[in-house]
């Protein structure tokens, strides 16, 4: 059972309330595909990923980024039950999508950077710690059903 | 994953901007690391104050940024350029090299907060590669 402090709950809720899921989702996925190009292996039929400009302008990537952020939203709304909330998604990522779970950390690092850029000074060490704790619980839950 | 000419150009270009507030960037990144990754505090137990913004953190952040400025200047041969620093980290400080990745991440986050427009995905890519290369050079003399 993950124990969340009041500060952590408030911080996570606050951060996500400030995010434009479309903009942040698209920017995060694009950044991941650019900074860690091997992650492009999962997006073979997403069109032009030839260079950074193409990736950042790719509408399929933007749309998928939004899907990912909405997926995270489910964890935000079920913070006391993330493992159960993500059981199906975990099976999906393992058995249908065949995503190496190490990639979840890469994407979550990119989300941290995108959120940091948006919040600026407000993204203090304490806020970052809460955000990264949340993401590490998400990452762990997504990897739970792999076997 | 060695540094291309494009990476080196990108690193030097943004470092020009960063070096103007190097002390602040270093202090903030270090302070951030001590809060987000409390296990890193084990290396600084001899400091009277490990809180963000404290004198020891500020002084040490400045030192770290000095080392990175050196690395930027030696970007064409980091192994040779950072040999002395590697020996210091290996034999005197004995910092577990896993922590290089941790501090690198905190510096990247700090760059994103201070330079949101300049820290594009491409700049992020080049800096991630640069810090990885620096970490490798720093670990050179460990064993």
From TrEMBL, chain A:
This is Globin domain-containing protein. Keywords: Heme, Iron, Metal-binding, Oxygen transport, Transport. Belongs to the globin family. Residues 3-147 form the Globin domain. One of its GO terms (cellular component) is haptoglobin-hemoglobin complex. InterPro entries: Globin (IPR000971), Globin-like_sf (IPR009050), Globin/Proto (IPR012292), Hemoglobin_b (IPR002337), Hemoglobin_oxygen_transport (IPR050056). The keyword Transport applies. SUPFAM superfamilies: Globin-like. One of its GO terms (biological process) is hydrogen peroxide catabolic process. One of its GO terms (molecular function) is oxygen binding. Pfam families: Globin (PF00042).
TrEMBL record, chain B:
This is Globin domain-containing protein. GO terms for biological process: hydrogen peroxide catabolic process. PANTHER family: HEMOGLOBIN FAMILY MEMBER (PTHR11442), HEMOGLOBIN SUBUNIT ZETA (PTHR11442:SF41). Belongs to the globin family. Residues 2-143 form the Globin domain. InterPro entries: Globin, Globin-like_sf, Globin/Proto, Hemoglobin_a-typ, Hemoglobin_oxygen_transport, Hemoglobin_pi. Keywords: Acetylation, Heme, Iron, Metal-binding, Oxygen transport, Transport. It comes from the Eukaryota. It comes from Perca flavescens.
């Amino acid at each position: 059972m993950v124990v969340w402090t009041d500060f952590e709950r408030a911080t996570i809720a606050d951060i996500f309330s400030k995010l434009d899921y479309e903009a942040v989702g698209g920017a995060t996925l694009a950044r991941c595909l650019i900074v860690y190009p091997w992650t492009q292996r999962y997006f073979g039929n997403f069109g032009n990923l030839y260079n950074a400009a193409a990736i950042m302008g790719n509408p399929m990537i933007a749309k998928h980024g939004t899907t990912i952020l909405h997926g995270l939203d489910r964890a935000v709304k079920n913070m006391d039950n993330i493992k159960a909330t993500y059981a199906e998604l975990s099976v999906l990522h393992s058995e249908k999508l065949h995503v190496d779970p190490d990639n979840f950390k890469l994407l979550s690092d990119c989300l941290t950077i995108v959120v940091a850029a948006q919040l600026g000074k407000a993204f203090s060490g304490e806020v970052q710690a809460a955000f990264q704790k949340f993401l590490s619980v998400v990452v762990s839950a997504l990897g739970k059903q792999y076997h | 994953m060695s540094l291309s000419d494009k990476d080196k150009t990108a690193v030097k270009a943004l470092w020009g901007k960063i070096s103007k507030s190097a002390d602040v960037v270093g202090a903030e990144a270090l302070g951030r690391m001590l809060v987000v990754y409390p296990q890193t505090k084990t290396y600084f137990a001899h400091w009277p104050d490990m809180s963000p913004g404290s004198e020891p953190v500020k002084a040490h952040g400045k030192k770290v940024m000095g080392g990175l400025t050196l690395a930027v200047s030696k970007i064409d041969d980091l192994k040779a350029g950072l040999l002395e620093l590697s020996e210091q980290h290996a034999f005197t400080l004995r910092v577990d090299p896993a922590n290089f990745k941790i501090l690198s991440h905190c510096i990247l986050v700090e760059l994103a907060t201070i330079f949101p427009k300049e820290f594009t995905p491409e700049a992020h890519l080049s800096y991630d590669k640069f810090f990885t290369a620096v970490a490798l050079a720093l670990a050179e003399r460990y064993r």
